[in-house]
Structures are given as structure tokens and as C-alpha cells.
């Protein structure tokens, strides 16, 4: 059982205090800047209390039949309402697996109007998405500290040309901004990255610190094939992620069945424990992650304010508004360069220029506001003083680290199975020695007969 995922009482009190202060800071200091420059229309909806109060979430992304739903069942050690597992594309919806004393399924339309849940902004994706969204409530001790989001299997080949009816990558972006971990699963037998999977991975850019990669079903190949599969996966990821750093890949077989090839048993156990330690840190670092996300949001809001005010400044007062608007959108890169030089802003802090141009097409530039320095000063003061105080309130991870060892026992790491394996190995060793003794006797017997035959011939 994943009992190590439960929060410590003292640490939970600290987290609640920090999150309470975060709510006040956001509403009083950052939200006025966002509303004044229409930040919510361009980037992310307004943050509500459930966004701050939500438990750490894990988002599972991968092509169909890579073991996403099986991975959830492996963590929970039980089934959940609405579970479907099979070799074909089975999970056709987003399923938020969350804790509740009463087990059941909450459909998407009812879920987005629940004020206690953080899913209200998802209503903008329409009924086509909400009909493919649900919450599965499970009374599991694992879910007392985390929540897990299962996603539809990403399609490949001809199937990916069929329109889902909603903005799939847009939904992934929404979840990626709010979850604590994004787990990409790959099948050891299916390493090809389809076009839709590539777009999905690209939609996760900007959240690289949250991404973890799993090479699942690794026990289905022997150790020599596994080496080649791992190399092929790293080559494919290098083309998609386009980063100089090597991505961390966890290798294993995350289900409750015996290993087919157990030559890499020790490797799988070590990789599994590394992954579980990473998941174990999520409840402890929940407040720190929300603090980090708020800082990123504040930096983006400041840059957005500079962009909007610069566009408003360049607009004519009377004639030629439409032509000037088209010209500004076309030359948005030059506006970025000018803001970067004047305000000494890093290029990495600017939003994606193509997405910004798409949204600006539907905006009325005459309703944009000019720059108000006092709103920016309030946000700067928040980052310099208020956030610094909150960071001091969060205890260091070394002080809150749980000393008890990992208690999750996999099917191939349990003591009973280890004893059985040792008995089998001992029996195999005895049998091997007995066979060697028989071979030696046969060789001696054959040599003796040969000597007798040799003497008779002479």
C-alpha cells in the first residue's frame, strides 16, 4: 500500500497556511493587473480558491495501449469506477480519479459546475469535451494525498485524422499548467511518435520540470533488445523535445503480473523505487509548486501588460485603425524586440508569438489600456517581499523527509516471492551440480572402456 503518500500533520498545517496567504496575495496584488490588461482572454482563466486548495495531481499522457490505466490501477491496487483496459483504444475520455468516501462517477457537465472542484474553467471547451470528461470517486488511501488524471489514448495512423470534436491539445495545456507531474508513457514495442502525440508533447512545453517519462512493458523484451529499445526511444525524444539535456526515463513494467524476462529484475526494482520517491515528494512540495506557478504567472502577466500597452500606444486615434492592427500583428516580433530592449526582459519570458497573433486577430485594440506603472510596482513588491516571506514559511524538504522506507511491495519484490525465487535458484544449482557429476562418471566410464578396448586390439 502507498501509505507513504499521506501528508504529515505538521507539514499539512504549514501547507494550508502558505496556500491561504497565496490566495490573499493573488486576489489583492496580481489579479488587478491581469484584469486590467485582459490577461484571462489571452493566456489562462482567473484562479479560483479550488485551484489553490486542490491536491497534487498527476497527468498521464501516452498513445493507446501503453499502460496508462493499468498504471493507475497499479498505484491504487484496485479498480476504479469507469475503468476499461484492453489492447485496443479503450479509454476515450479524460478521467479524474479522486478521493471520496462514496464511490461513483460524476459526469463532466455536473463536474464543471461544482464550486468545490477546480474544473470550472473547462466548460469553455463545450459539450463535445464535457461528454468525454468524468470524475471517478474512489475511497482509496492513496488518493487522500494526490489525484490522478487519465487521458484518452493518443491516436496514430489513419485514426488520428478523425477530429475529436474539441481542442484536445488545448485541454492538455490547461491540465499541464495545473498538475504537479506529467507522466509520458511509451510502450517498449511501440516507440513511433504519431503526429497527434508530437503535438501533445509540444503543448506541454514550458512545463519541462513536471515531465517524467516511463518506458513501460520493458519486461516483454530481453536485455539485449531492451538496450536497443532504450536507444531508439532517446533518439525519438531528442527530435521531439529539442533540448540539449537528456530526458530522465524510468524503465520498468508497472502492473501486478510476473515478469516475462527477469534478467533486468534489479534494474526494474531500482527504477520503480526512484519513480515512487518522486511521487512521494508531491504532497510535501505542494505549496512550493503552487508558489512557483504563481511566480511564473506573475512574470507572464507583467510581460503581457507591456505588450498590450505597447500595441495601444502604436494605434492611431482616428483613421487607419484596421490597417494598423494588421501591421502590428504581422510585425509582432519587432514589438517583442522593442519591449525586450526597453525593459531588459529575457526572451524566454515572452509568450509564443504565433499563439499571441492568433488571439490578437479577434481583439479590439482600441479597448487596450496604456501602461500603469503602479500596477507593475505592486506585482514587483509582491515578488520581492511577500513571496520571499512565504518561501521562509515552507520548511526545507530535509526537515520534513519521512524516515520510514518505501512500503510499496511489487509482485516481483515481495519477500515471499524472493524466498520462492531463492528456493528455485538453489534447486537449479543442485540440479546443475548433479548433472555435472553424472557427466564426469560417464566420461570416466567411457575412458575405462576405451582403455580395455585398446588393450584388446593390441
Automatic annotation (TrEMBL):
Residues 52-283 form the Dynamin-type G domain. Coiled coil: none annotated. InterPro entries: DUF5600 (IPR040990), Dynamin (IPR022812), Dynamin_N (IPR045063), EHD_N (IPR031692), G_DYNAMIN_dom (IPR030381), P-loop_NTPase (IPR027417). It is found in: Cell membrane; Endosome membrane. The keyword Membrane applies. It comes from the Eukaryota. CDD domains: EHD. Keywords: Cell membrane, Endosome, Membrane. It is a peripheral membrane protein. Pfam families: DUF5600 (PF18150), Dynamin_N (PF00350), EHD_N (PF16880). This is EH domain-containing protein 3-like isoform X2. It comes from Musca domestica. The gene is LOC131806321.
